[in-house]
Design a protein that fits this description.
Structural class: alpha/beta
Number of helices: 13
Bound molecules: zinc ion
Distance between the termini: 53 Å
Helix content: 25-40%
Largest sheet: 8 strands, mixed
Number of strands: 18
Strand order of the largest sheet: 3-2-1-4-15-16-17-18
Radius of gyration: 21 Å
Length: 438
Amino acid sequence: MSTYHARYALLPDGLARDVTFELRGNAFASVTANTDPGGARRLPGIVLPGFANAHSHAFHRALRGRTHDHGGTFWTWRERMYAVAGRLDPDTYLALARATYAEMALAGVTSVAEFHYLHHAPDGRRYDDPNAMAEVLRMAAADAGIRLTLLDACYLRGGLDADGHRAPDATQRRFCDADVDAWAARVDALRESDGMRVGAAIHSVRAVPRESLAAVGSAAGNRPLHVHLSEQPAENEACAQYYGCTPTELLGDTGVLRRTLTAVHATHLLDGDIELLGAAHATACFCPTTERDLADGIGPARALRDAGVALSLGSDQHAVIDLLEEARALESHERLSSLRRGRLRPADLLDALTAHTSIGWPEAGRLAAGARADLVAVRLDTPRTAGIDPAQVVLAATASDVDTVLVDGDVVVDGGRHRLGDVGALLEAAIEPLWCES
Ligand SMILES: [Zn+2]
């Protein structure tokens, strides 16, 4: 049994003082407020539950700070994203994903949902193990010390316009399976392990035609099912022209809307879409730092929540890996779009930060006996956090203020250092070669 003590902690019923955490194996045996530290190891600042990063494309980390020249348009970004996607193989992907997940651990992430579509070799051929790239992600997360939900994305077509779906282009071939049955058979071969669970994803209604949506839904069963939904107006326009409905209505018509569904972005929704997602008790995953980087717009977070949709957060393309910043942006973007403050309370932001259930880890995300022993100690004595009310830490702290991170009882980050060592050096070694002209 190991024991930790913190001056402050955010427990399920709010801010508590002088909290002792007793760990047995990978779970909390007890969490008790108003205690003396005794012989417990002392943690600095305030302890929060581990964060869930509900939307990640690990390889996009290589794009940070590389897409703002030549006008910095969406097309600049996409051209670079395809360039990186075309250069990765299992070895280089392992190095990049391991370093990216280590950066997440430094930011307090204890579970990540990887929306995985980099399936095959660059020419579209299957690797000898058709899940070689997924196995790379399993290894990367294990090395970085965080849990992984592998959301294997069905990706069949290259895009959608008024005339229907386009064939995949040369870069997209490695994202695609031949048909939905080939996708489902490949996913069926994935095995769960201690630190990895398997879910499913529909890349988008642009990449999966109507006749295959229901098949993805039934293959997902009760597992998490995620979909990029209405990120940009162009998707809505193409869907309206070709199908005569919104992307959300299309998901509803094909039986995909459900409690285990997460709509990623959910930026450009009509009122009826919000009602449909609410009636299904689905989750909406906002990725505010990505949505502003890509000029997507601001989604209706408060309206979704009022309709009964749970909110989660993702760092998506990793222009920033700071889940505290994502949580803060959820509220600050609402302020900009509504011209009102206090749209989401600090406790609502903490719920979004810890939405592990939406990615298949319902036993994680709270500081309570029986829950997985994840915790994030955030310093309260840095230039950013000194003097704050600890109850409002989510509105002030950044990833740089994370001092200690435990995942399933293991110390992964200690004193702001990851157990793998210099994560900046790991990232540099993984990313620089991808941009060398050969
Ligand atoms: Zn995405």
